[in-house]
Amino acid sequence: MHAGLQPSPQLESHCAPKRNPDSVRTERALEGVRDALSNKIKDRQAYRLVLNLGRTSVRREQVEALLQRKPVVGLQELFIIEKNGAIFRAFPDPEQITPAPQAR
Predict the structure, then answer these.
(1) Which is it for the CA torsion 60, 64, 70, 71, positive or negative?
(2) Rounded Cα gap, residues 30 and 48, in angstroms
(3) What's the first-to-final CA gap in the chain, in angstroms?
(4) Cβ–Cβ under 8 Å, residues 49 and 78
(5) Calculated CA dihedral for residues 20, 69, 71, 34, nearest 10 degrees
(6) Which residues pair with 96 in a beta bridge?
(7) 91 CB-near residues (< 8 Å, 6+ apart)
(8) ω into residue 71 within 30 of 0, thus cis?
(9) 48: which strand partners?
(10) What span, in angstroms and rounded, lies between the C-alpha atoms of 29 and 25?
């Protein structure tokens, strides 16, 4: 069974997949992130990018997994700023660059 899919109810003797709305939104958001990265590279605006996840439901691990499954041709380096302010290099070799800022 695929992630985000639940057992399918029978509708008029046809099986209809039932999707979790949160997983659908996250999948769309991930595809949107990948499309935005790809467009920046296609338009030759940049090959090293910074992605701020502060206002999205997408997590860094999801972006890293997506890039493993569907690499963005031409992407040289990707840094991600998480909601907590921590900065990671997500591509090519994932690693944490700075920890989250300490609350004062």
Answers:
(1) positive
(2) 18
(3) 45
(4) yes
(5) 0
(6) 88
(7) 64, 67, 75, 77, 78
(8) no
(9) 77
(10) 6
pTM: 0.67
DSSP notation for the chain: --TTEEPPPEETTEE--EE-HHHHHHHHHHHHHHHHHHHHHHTTS-SEEEEE-TTSS--HHHHHHHHHHS--TT--EEEEE-TTS-EEEEESS-EEEEPPPPP-
Amino acid at 85: G
Q: Please name which of 83, 85, 80 lies closest in space to residue 101, comparing C-alpha atoms.
A: 85
Residues 1, 74: Cα–Cα separation, whole Å:
33
Average pLDDT for consecutive 10-residue bins of the chain (104 residues)? 46 44 69 86 84 85 89 89 89 78 71
Whether the CB-CB separation of 74 and 98 falls below 8 Å is answered with: no
